[in-house]
Specification:
heterodimer, A: alpha/beta, Rossmann fold, eight-stranded mixed sheet, four-stranded antiparallel sheet, 11 helices, 12 strands, 30% helix, 20% strand, globular, B: alpha/beta
Chain lengths: 370, 329
């Protein structure tokens, strides 16, 4: 099966300072030779700390910004060779959802207008049928059709994110890039959006590039994970393989840093010392060496290549063969007691009927005694 | 709790009077006790009243719009009856607070040294050079590298994790007995979060201060707290030791929260969801405030507000159905 999206050796540098004549004198090396691919219907997660270049990669993949080097192919076509008209047609197939649903919806447009705009732009649905299509999309994301007349400020954060998802779905894309789509949401709302994304993927065969710093969320939603550090992918593998046996010291540190809601969880904690180095002046050799516990001389001078084993688990570390096995980085003692498991299940059952969503408008009266 | 409590909150109620005449019930009849040296996690989602509770303790709610009643006993004072001048002596001294966003709580036009020294001079007096010495020692204590140089930096020169360390150093300047940390790691990356949580554990062990940690992240609570209070719609709905709460929660809201977080140690295809919305707090529901979203709801729930009762020793729940194990056996 050929890849839906393929990125090969992407490089992006942003000018950080300029000379008197506007010539850049220093660069932030945001992305350094990043390669990955996404198959149709699959979720690839890009994870890493702030400033690691994960959002830049997602924008490069849609050609919202131009790479300095490298190639991007979508369904086998070279994206960088597309003309403006062709690029517009491509955008129909690849959409983007942002972190902040408050900032990404125009406050002066009703939800109906927000959703009808892409239909008109891409000339997908004749004007007479647009209203019906808008209602259909709203139902798909668990909102009631009547909300089409309302403005974004009348909705809660989770509902706004549903609207943003609906807008992305309106043009029937094949790929959606989700840039931290649940980071700004409360935990109970977050699970609704994650469930929705997953349902939509199964129903519509969507591929996602899921950009996140939250590894627990990534473990839940992704098929494959690429871990980024300072503009480079340091490890990539199938999600289960990565969480079961992380190889790169950076991945291990990231995984061990996630707090687990289990007070007596037995696990080894690797606390990284020092600050994230600046992408303006990244360390020589391996870009992780300044924070790595296993650093040797070679790491300081020579950058490791991302090398895959037979299972497709790829790691960029000189010492990957010598590292001790990563035991107990991720606790495996299972979650809940049987009684608690049953209680939690009651919360899942109530959502599975046709009345899913149970959506209400913020300004409506409270459902006291309902 | 055996030792006499360091802080005791009784019947705390905070009402906000909006410009449109509507009254919002932000915190209702909240009781809380904390022993010296204990760490309490105050958990809940946006708008549940956890931050308002902490601001009420600090006396930082706007007098014009907030109507605060009840009692907050701390160190021989009732903080709600205390004069502003006395409160100013307590704040930053025996009572300290760390906020979520360190950039907005540090003054950009003064060096971090100036800001820490100001706190020390205000509460401890003494000479400026000795205060500077102490400030450097504090920065070292929160693991800021080369503190004697960093002390003259302005906040914008520091990274987010460093700024949060500075905030902690400032909060510790006068050896507080109670430290309130409002989402101290929410704006930070996981690796920095791990460093800051490690630091908080270390400082707690060293200083014996009590900590109220306000967070929406149950993982963080499990890592650093001894006790937890879960808040929903302005009320405490469950209160227990961390071990108890995570092993056998006794309020449906807590159950829903635990089920809705994706976890590293648990595999699920479908996460639990808490459907519906938080009630409108200008007109709180008459019965249980969680009733409209609760899968276990029945008629008794909506008739009268349920009291917070002890289900197991040291484990309180505001649910008439508790113990919840009965519901599934």
């Amino acid at each position: 099966m050929t890849a839906l999206l393929e990125a090969d050796g992407l490089v992006k540098r942003f000018p950080a300072t300029r000379s008197l004549f506007g010539r850049p004198t220093a660069f932030v090396r945001a992305v350094e030779s990043v390669s990955f691919s996404v198959k149709a219907g699959e979720t690839l997660a890009l994870v890493g700390e702030s400033g690691c270049g994960k959002s830049t990669v997602s924008r490069l993949a849609l050609r919202l910004i131009e790479p300095d080097a490298g190639a991007i192919r979508f369904e086998g076509r070279d994206l960088l060779a597309l003309t403006a008209t062709e690029l517009r047609a491509f955008r129909r197939k690849a959409q983007l959802i942002f972190q902040d649903p408050y900032a990404s919806l125009n406050p002066r447009m009703t939800v109906g207008q927000v959703l009808a705009e892409p239909l008109a732009l891409h000339n997908l649905v004749p004007a007479s049928a647009r209203r019906e299509r808008v209602e259909q999309i709203l139902r798909m994301v668990g909102l009631e059709p009547r909300v089409a007349r309302r403005y974004p400020h009348e909705f809660s954060g989770g509902q706004r994110q549903r609207i943003a998802i609906a807008r992305a779905l309106a043009v029937e894309p094949k790929l959606i890039i989700c840039d931290e789509p649940v980071s700004a949401l409360d935990v109970s709302i977050r699970s609704q959006i994650l469930n929705l994304l997953r349902d939509l993927q199964q129903r519509l065969g969507l591929a996602y590039i899921f950009v996140s710093h939250d590894l627990a969320v990534v473990k839940h939603i992704a098929d494959r994970v690429a871990v980024m550090n300072l503009g480079q992918i340091v490890e990539t593998a199938a999600t289960d393989a990565l969480f079961a046996a992380p190889r790169h010291p950076y991945t291990r540190a990231l995984l061990s840093a996630i707090p687990v809601p289990k007070p007596q969880a037995k696990r080894s904690r690797i606390v990284l010392q020092g600050e994230l180095p600046s992408a303006l002046n990244p360390p020589t050799g391996c870009r992780f060496h300044s924070r790595c516990a296993y650093v040797v001389e070679r790491c300081r001078v020579e950058g490791p290549a991302l090398i895959a084993d037979s299972t497709g688990h790829a790691t960029a570390c000189h010492r990957v063969a010598e590292l001790p096995p990563a035991d107990a980085v991720v606790p495996h003692d299972g979650g809940f007691s049987p009684a608690l498991e049953k209680l939690v299940a009651a919360f899942s059952l109530s959502t599975e009927g046709p009345a899913r969503g149970g959506v209400d408008i913020v300004s409506a009266s409270p459902r006291a005694g309902a | 709790m055996t030792a006499s409590p360091l802080i005791e909150i009784e019947g705390l109620r905070v009402l906000f009077h909006g410009d449109d005449g509507r009254v919002t019930h932000a915190v209702d009849a909240l009781d809380l006790k904390l022993a010296p040296g204990a760490t309490l996690g105050l958990v809940g989602e946006s708008g549940c009243g956890k931050s308002v509770t902490s601001l009420a303790i600090m006396g930082l709610l706007p007098k014009r719009s907030a109507n605060v009643s009840g009692a907050i006993r701390f160190d021989g004072f009732d903080l709600l009856q205390t004069a502003d001048t006395t409160l100013r002596d307590l704040r930053g001294n025996r009572l300290a607070m760390i906020f979520q966003e360190p950039m907005t709580s540090l003054n950009p036009s003064f060096t971090i040294g100036d800001q820490i020294i100001e706190t020390i001079l205000r509460h401890r007096g003494g000479s400026r050079p000795s205060a500077r010495e102490r400030a450097i020692a504090l920065l070292r204590r929160v693991h800021i590298p080369s503190p004697e140089k960093r002390i003259d930096d302005y906040p914008h020169r520091l990274s987010g994790g460093m700024r949060q360390r500075v905030m902690i150093a400032m909060a510790l300047a006068c050896d507080p007995r109670l430290l309130i940390a409002d989402e101290p790691t929410t704006a930070l990356d996981v690796t920095l979060q791990a460093q800051i949580l490690e630091l908080m554990r270390e400082l707690k062990a060293a200083s014996g201060a009590a900590i109220i940690l306000i967070t929406h992240d149950l993982g963080v609570v499990a890592e650093v707290c001894d006790e937890v209070a879960v808040m929903y719609a302005g009320e405490i709905v469950e209160r227990a030791s961390v071990d108890e709460l995570f092993a056998a929660p006794q309020h449906p809201y807590t159950v829903g929260l635990l089920g809705s977080i994706p976890r590293l140690d648990r595999r699920t295809d479908h996460l639990a969801t808490i459907e519906g919305m938080v009630p409108n707090m200008t007109r709180p529901p008459t019965g249980c405030r969680f009733a409209a979203r609760c899968p276990f709801v029945s008629d008794v729930c909506t008739e009268a507000p349920p009291p917070l009762v002890e289900v197991n020793p040291g484990h309180d729940s505001r649910c008439v159905k508790a113990p919840l194990e009965r519901l599934v056996s």
